[in-house]
Amino acid sequence: MGMSLISVHCFVLVLVLQLAVGNAGNVSFDTRSFIIDGQRKLLISAAIHYPRSVPAMWPGLIQLAKEGGANVIESYVFWNGHELSPDNYYFGGRYDLVKFVKTVQQAGMYMILRIGPFVAAEWTYGGVPVWVHYVSGMEFRTDNEPWKHYMKKFTTYIVNLMKKEKLFASQGGPIIMSQIENEYGYYEGYYGDGGKRYAKWAAEMALSQNTGVPWIMCQQWDTPDPVINTCNGFYCHDFTPISPHSPKIWTENWPGWFKTFGSMDPHRPVEDVSFAVARFFQKGGSGNNYYMYHGGTNFGRTAGGPFITTSYDYDAPIDEYGLPRLPKWGHLKELHGAIKLCENALLHGKRTNLSLGPLLEADVYTDSSGLCAAFLSNSDNKTDSVVKFRNMTYHLPAWSVSILPDCKNVVYNTAKVGSQTSVVDMVPEDFQPSVVSPDEDLKALQWEVFLEKPGTWGYPDFNITGFVDNINTTKDITDYLWVTTSVYVDEKFLKNSSSPVLLVKSKGHAMHVFVNQKLQGSASGNGTVFPFDVKIPITMKAGNNEIALLTMTVGLPTAGPGYEWIGSGLTSVEIQGLNNKILNLTEVSWDYKVGLLGEFLDLYKGEGLKSTKWVSTANPPKQRPLTWYKVLVDHPSGNDPVGLDMIHMGKGLAWLNGEEIGRYWPRKSSKHDACVDHCDYRGSFSPNKCSTGCGEPTQRWYHVPRSWFKPSGNVLVIFEESGGDPTQIRFSKRRAAGFCSLVSEDHPTISVESWTTATEETHDKKATAQLHCPSNTRISAIKFASFGNPSGACGSFSQGNCHDPNSASVVEKICLNRSKCSIELSEENFDLSSCSGTIRRLAVEAVCS
Questions:
Q1: C-alpha 545: how far from its chain's center?
Q2: How many CB atoms lie within 10 A of CB 243?
Q3: Alpha-carbon span 547 to 645, nearest angstrom
Q4: In this structure, are strands 249-253 and 228-233 parallel, antiparallel, or unpaired?
Q5: pLDDT score for 779
Q6: Which of 474, 489, 661, 738 could cross-link to 654 by cystine, CB 3.0-4.6 Å?
């Protein structure tokens, strides 16, 4: 249908307002805040890394961040994704930086561009192209002329690209600040005077780019004016900028943490995240960036490491698949709304700090016009408190902040989560055979396989005595390096020997051992922390025995002093048990071959998908190592995000239609690790505080973007290293199975949404439970409802010993067949005499369809 004239006018007005935000103009700053076009601004920023999602997802992710209360999008620039070799630049697909920044601009948001170009970011090699390491005389991140040359060259290239597209705020674009280097203060001392000179040079080089917007350096404690030094961490309320002329900016607020294969699943409670953010603004902060707001996916071989997972979900407000993580997204949205209500006072008022008792304080912002906003905080990690402030009484839960936009009424408390929660499932769906010809049997999947032969394929790339470094040898064009030799065993030695054992020492990262074409065992370890030192029983025969070791990198180092010199690969190999002696193979002759034959044949892309090397079969081999699988499938039904379930596979790589899904490895964490059933958010957070998943695979599902699917003829290719059952691979759709609200009577009585001015009418507003279905769905059923003292969590609520029996009928009357609803905890709706003398709660679980 066409739009009416009124609708067109409204659309144009909205577009003009969006562009007024997205196109900044003049940007300056002082000790209080950034000043954009003459107006002070509080900045709520959401980190969304463009190559960790796909262009089809960008608009939705950015819009969801905006709906969550953000007005800025932040991203690193990923050098090794853009300069594939010297002067060979790429800005297509997931790396279309210009398109990403323009998408931010079209959404009416500002942009922080962290050029680096070193980024760390759990991204392979810290974002630096591997080829840079092999430039003559190169040393990363110090006063080294080759490094400075290439670093400046790429920085200038990016700046000029942004200038060409008029994307800096000084040109009317969305970019309001840029970052040079990244967390260098941690490592500057390692480089001595060269480090100090380099940091100063980097700042001056950045300023010389004349972008017309401020530059920042995070975690850099000798930043020269006018570059702004900023804070990274779980808490930054105590941070003070070096320069008295700089505002207080938090560039990395970590709402979760990343995962490594074989580790637990870390979580950070939203009560603690919101506490940290509220404290930051309470103490004069003016810009907060969530790292990450959407973590996304380390597609292909971009995950750093070693062992960082393909998933970079980060327990972020938007999950890896692009869905809001509830209640984290909703509770932070309410926080941002509460802070925005205080914006004028925070940016223009005078701050006064008041002690309300031990670990209790108020920060009050006032001006001569009567403007007033207050933050009341309780930093005790165990004890709730009741405080007096301006002749009124306030209850402050332990480890919480209450926000009072008028210095009187609480609109938000960080510990009281009233936004809805969701239960998210991965719903499996069998592969559907793709229609490629009318004669195809649609009842069975059509598999093709290619079997790699263990050991050197073709001619060796070289033969030497002893071992080489994997990274120096492969130059990261592949994870894989074959190291092969032959051992002659006299028959009498076998008769007089115990079972032989291969003793291997290595700097990492992983390895499979083959003897005479048979897999004998595997091992893995990080040489900087847990080097290999393993014993693998092997089976040998009389005569010549081929020993083939497939050694692997699993993500290159991402940061640290001199990290580019950290190697990987074998250091020692011996055989124990032959004639009751030790045979040292370290100094024998070894053949080396870089990569796999299947990689050389490009079996996963282009013409390689049609190669005659593939062999058709109705029954693909199971539990066979070094096997390539190919299958044609239809796209999964519906529009839900999709993950590839690899729980029945071993370790390897996956592609869809030539696009790199990434490394898979359903490696389990130890069941003896310290996981929790319930996390106490109170007290300082650390990455291992609130972990789950002990004894389970760190990652089971691997994100496959919907935009990678074709209507039919989708080609899924798997390379399996150690053996699995490909017939058990499934697509799974990520779907919210239920939505819940759990609200208590003592929830702030004035919501951010209902705030206008402090009137008696708003003061009397009751606590309210809210439910909101995804777009194009309605509340079709109420699975649970109880007003009283229900217990449990979303998906597992249960009635307490106090329960209003009319709870379900009341909620159904208000909510059924609606896309959203609000249930007030009032006497009109519920029997308030129930459980008198206690704080009552309403718990609701609904189904949206």
A1: 46
A2: 15
A3: 33
A4: parallel
A5: 96
A6: 661
Over range 134-139, report the average pLDDT: 98
Q: What is the pLDDT of residues 516-553, one digit of tens each?
A: 999 999 999 976 666 789 999 999 999 999 999 999 99
Residue 547 near residue 593, CB atoms below 8 Å: no
Asked if the model's pLDDT at residue 755 lies above 90, the reply is: no
- Give the whole-angstrom CA distance, residue 181 versus residue 120: 10
Handedness of CA 793, 796, 801, 803 (dihedral sign): positive
The full set of domain ranges for the chain reads: 40-342, 348-417, 423-452+599-734, 462-595, 766-848
pLDDT score for 15? 38
Quick: pLDDT tens for 589-647. Answer: 999 999 999 999 999 999 999 999 999 999 999 999 999 999 999 999 999 999 999 99
**Ranges assigned E (strand) in 142-204:** 175-180
Q: Cis omega before residue 790 (within 30°)?
A: no
> What residues have CB less than 8 Å from 276, skipping those under 6 apart?
234, 235, 236, 237, 253
Q: Which amino acid is at 492?
A: K
The CATH class of 423-452+599-734 is: mainly beta
Query: What's the chain's length in residues?
Result: 849
pLDDT value at position 764?
52
Is residue 95 helix, strand or coil? Answer: helix
Give the whole-angstrom CA distance, residue 387 versus residue 489: 82
Supply the CATH classification number for the domain 766-848: 2.60.120.740
729 contacts 431 by C-beta, under 8 angstroms? yes
Q: Find how far residue 21's CA is from the centre of its chain.
A: 27
**How far is CA 501 from its chain centroid?**
41
Cis amide leading into 111 (omega within 30): no
What distance in Å separates the CA atoms of residue 490 and residue 578, rounded to the nearest whole number? 9
pLDDT tens track for 281-290:
999 999 999 9
Span 462-595: which CATH code? 2.60.120.260
- What separation, in Å, do the N-terminal and C-terminal C-alpha atoms of the chain show? 25
Average per-residue pLDDT in the chain? 93
Element (H, E) at 465: strand 462-465
Residue 214: pLDDT above 90?
A: yes
DSSP H helices in 505-613? 597-600
**Topology agreement, domain 462-595 and domain 766-848:** yes
Chain-centre distance for alpha carbon 783: 32
Q: Is pLDDT at 7 greater than 50 in this prediction?
A: no
Residue 765 binned pLDDT confidence (cut-offs 50, 70, 90)? low
Q: For 560, which DSSP code?
A: S
Is residue 153 scored above 90 in pLDDT?
yes
- The angle formed by the CA atoms of residues 194, 195 and 201, to the nearest 5 degrees, is 90
pLDDT value of residue 769: 92
Which of 130, 114, 139 is CA-nearest to residue 190? 139
DSSP for 483-501, please give it: EEEEEEE-HHHHHTS---E
Q: How many CA atoms lie within 13 A of 424 on its CB side?
A: 21
Confidence at residue 124, expressed as pLDDT on a 0 to 100 scale: 98
Catalytic residues, which ones?
183, 252
Which tokens in the block code for residue 447? Answer: 């598999």
